[in-house]
Amino acid sequence: MTAIAVTIAGSDSGGGAGIQADLKTFSALGVYGASVITALTAQNTQGVQAIHDVPPDFVAAQIDAVFSDLNVAAVKIGMLSRVPTIEAVAAGIARHRMKNVVLDPVMIATSGDRLLAPDAIDSLRRLLIPRADIITPNLPEAAALLDVSIAKDESEMRAQGERLIAVGATAVLIKGGHGSGADSVDLLIGKDGVERLAAPRVATRKTHGTGCTLSSAIAAGLAKGLTLTDAVRAAKAYVTAAIGAADKLNIGKGHGPVHHFHPWW
Q1: pLDDT tens track for 169-226
Q2: C-alpha span between 251 and 119 (Å, rounded)
Q3: pTM tops 0.70
Q4: What is the mean pLDDT of residues 107-111?
Q5: Rounded to whole angstroms, what are the CA distances from 204 to 255, 257, 260?
Q6: Distance CA 114, CA 93 (A)
Q7: Is 176 a catalytic residue?
Q8: What is the DSSP letter of 193?
């Protein structure tokens, strides 16, 4: 049986994040990728110049087309931009009884440009977090979801993860890439406990698409039948290697992409 994963996210015209990064990740990890595009961005390594939202009914049509035909084993959800899109995706999850849902609550691009309308945060929290098997916020996103200050250490990261579980999340991976220190530490928090995942912090500006890549790598692992914990561990290892190899690429003038195909190129 061919493992199939679907990404529901925005398109990055620069190719480093969003749908493009997700499909590259699926392919690199041996999973067939399909897509539902929620928004088009005019974007490159230096920033986001414009966003064109896909009409919610067309988002729903894409979902119905894919899930009525393909045997989808996992779903990654990324950029949703606004409330009507979130509502369309939440309805699609319920309609097709999607499984192994990985929600990356994308709010800000690596360049600093906003990708989620401020009034959409509450809808994301109410409609999608309870429907996901795991959410993967970075430090600013976790803080925004809870309307608190950004966690300054692992103790505060854990506390915020536990609060997100109380909000309705099944599991939370709080990513420490925005933190400091020699290691980049992520915390996988579930109802049964916490696992600390650490990797040496890589000194590079080429981190565009890191969050998209990590969440889609988790979905790829779930699509192949890994447990959630094993899928997260494998995804962390893959992303760390992709960041470590990023300087081998010469793409753009700003925050370049990670190297999705580092084992082969």
Answers
A1: 999 999 986 656 678 899 999 977 899 998 888 878 888 999 999 999 999 999 999 9
A2: 34
A3: yes
A4: 66
A5: 9, 10, 15
A6: 25
A7: no
A8: E
Question: Among all chains, which residue has been given the structure tokens 């729903």?
Answer: 60
pLDDT at 107 over 90: no
Q: Pick the catalytic residue: 45, 207, 213, 240?
A: 207
Say if residues 119 and 153 touch (Cβ distance below 8 Å): no
Report yes or no: 211 and 21 within 8 Å, Cβ to Cβ. no
Is 209 among the residues known to form the active site?
yes
Count the neighbouring beta carbons within 10 Å of the beta carbon of residue 198. 16
Active-site residue, from 85, 212, 236, 256: 212
Instruction: Given the residues 24, 76, 175, 206, select the one marked as catalytic.
Output: 175
Does 211 qualify as catalytic in the annotation? yes
d(CA 159, CA 10) in angstroms, rounded, equals 30
Token pair in block for residue 55 = 């009409």
Domains of the chain: 4-248 (3.40.1190.20)
3-state DSSP assignment of residue 161: helix
The yes-or-no verdict on residue 233 having pLDDT over 90 is yes
Per the residue annotation, which of 7, 38, 85, 210 is the catalytic one? Answer: 210
Which pLDDT tens digit goes with each residue over 124-151?
A: 999 999 999 999 999 999 998 998 999 9
Catalytic residue among 209, 213, 236, 256: 209
Task: Out of 211, 221, 236, 240, pick the active-site residue.
Answer: 211
pLDDT in tens, 164-175: 999 899 999 999
- 207 carries an active-site annotation: yes
